[in-house]
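---------- Forwarded message ----------

FYI, see the Nucleoside diphosphate kinase record below. Original note from H. follows.
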Amino acid sequence: MSNPDAERTFIAVKPDGVQRGLISNILSRFEQRGFKLVGIKLVTPTENLLKQHYAEHVEKSFFPKMLSYMMSGPILATVWEGKDVVKQGRAILGATNPLNSAPGTIRGDLAIDMGRNVVHGSDSVESAEREINLWFKKEELIDWKLNQLAWIYE
Ligand code: IDP
């Protein structure tokens, strides 16, 4: 069995996903795939946190609207662990623009507009590490053994 604890990703349910009651639908996709939840909390992010999180977009024209969308209510912040979880997480989410997302993905099933695309997921192992450190304190990440491991990994 390879080491499934080796990789982590940051997945967030954005305010529209929380308001629309989509939390359990979204989390169940990661749980049922076999990934392990190691951190979870509701957060109302500050402007400062979002500017750090979306540092690459701060100068973009859509940023002010995106900022008010992301600050419009609580976000469910989660951290998942498992083999190739960053890339697999992005595949579970679908494309940034829901209109380009395949059915079966979260955005392809549950969203239409880019500015209401329901979820965030880290796009690389490096950004995952940065985002996890930004949203979570070390002690908020729980080290536990998934007893089903041998049924998920060979
Ligand atoms: P990602 O969320 O799939 O990683 P990014 O390109 O990092 O996509 O963009 C971050 C978020 O910014 C998107 O999820 C989307 O909500 C928003 N966004 C990106 N581009 C646009 C745009 O052109 N118009 C409106 N919102 C956008």
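H. also flagged this: The helical segments are 15-19, 23-33, 47-53, 63-70, 85-93, 106-110, 125-135, 149-152.
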